[in-house]
Design a protein that fits this description.
Layout lengths: L2 E4 L5 E5 L4 E6 L4 E7 L4 E6 L10 E6 L4 E5 L6 E6 L14
Antiparallel strand pairs: 1-2, 2-3, 3-4, 5-6, 6-7, 7-8
Length: 98
């Protein structure tokens, strides 16, 4: 694991990994809810704010492929919300500013 981040309610955890995946974990059951594959290492993963105020549960992930992907992880099927191409050759950090 290269990064971990808790959801706002503390019920889930997302991780970025060198196996090219972003994983969403259920804390209570310690089970994998979603395994989202990327083309390259996923160095950073973070939950988007707003789910605790009625928004969708979303995770942003990025890594060696440079693109930032925003995923809806609310339901059983993961859905890509947006892909944002980074304008730099390396992204060193990912977080949400509230």
């Amino acid at each position: 694991m290269l990064s971990v981040n808790f959801s706002a309610d503390g019920a889930q955890l997302c991780s970025g990994s060198a196996d090219c995946s972003c994983i969403v974990w259920d804390i209570a059951t310690r089970a994998v809810k979603h395994r989202i594959k990327h083309r390259e290492w996923v160095e950073y993963a973070a939950f988007a704010p707003g789910h605790d105020r009625g928004g969708q549960l979303a995770v942003a992930a990025c890594g060696h492929d440079i693109d930032i992907r925003l995923w809806n992880v609310e339901h059983d099927q993961v859905k890509l919300i947006a892909m944002l191409p980074a304008q730099i050759s390396y992204l060193g950090m990912l977080y949400f500013w509230l």
